[in-house]
Design brief:
With 238 residues, the chain is of the alpha+beta class. It has 5 helices and 14 strands. A hairpin with a 2-residue loop joins strand 3 and strand 4. The protein is globular, with a radius of gyration of 19 Å.
Length: 238
Amino acid sequence: MIRELSLLWKRFSPLEQRLLLAVRQVLPPAAVLTFDAQVAAITRVQRLPPSWSEIDFYCMRRGKVNWLGVPLFPCTDEFRLAEVSFRVRSKGYKATLSNIRGHIFDFAITPGPRGVAFEPWDTDPIARLVSDPLRTPTGRKEPEMIPAMWRDFLDRHPGPPPAGWTFNNEATAYRLALEDGVYLILAERDGSAFILYRVDPPASGLFYLPHYDCNPEELAGDVESVVAGQNYRTDSPK
């Protein structure tokens, strides 16, 4: 707790400093100066409770997000820039840095790293570039690989979703970092209940998140029952 209090006057925790340095080392040489300028422009770091599984970066001016005047990457799509694998206390972690609108935005980290954010790493990290930030933008978000069972569900339900529901496909599914992994949001009901697919670490089935404050529960029944609002079964005891 005392070490976390130091973040009241420091921009970055040791965890974030190490992750940003690891990403910098795998960038194309022509992208390094732009990356450095963006890191220097960050004035606010938002670490999502409880486990810091998502860490967001903002350039704030007069209380608003404003990246005007900060060098941007040519690719303004939403995409994953780099991945960093590291170990702390003999436990493995993976962080993925994403970009939006030409600048770095957030790390999704699994498992949640809050308990080791100030600890030294066991070994040097392994970083890799996922996408070139200097490439020409496509004007759209990179597609996600959704599971076959969800594609089959969408094929069976081609019409508008039931009231309150939104269904996502490869183009619209988006990621959510939680304590135990990174999930794709395949469907959501009124922004409060979600059908998920865990992509990291990979899982074979679907999950249900009844509320942000809950933990994902692996579905053992059919998706139709959840969407219809009927009682559903999970692999977790009630």
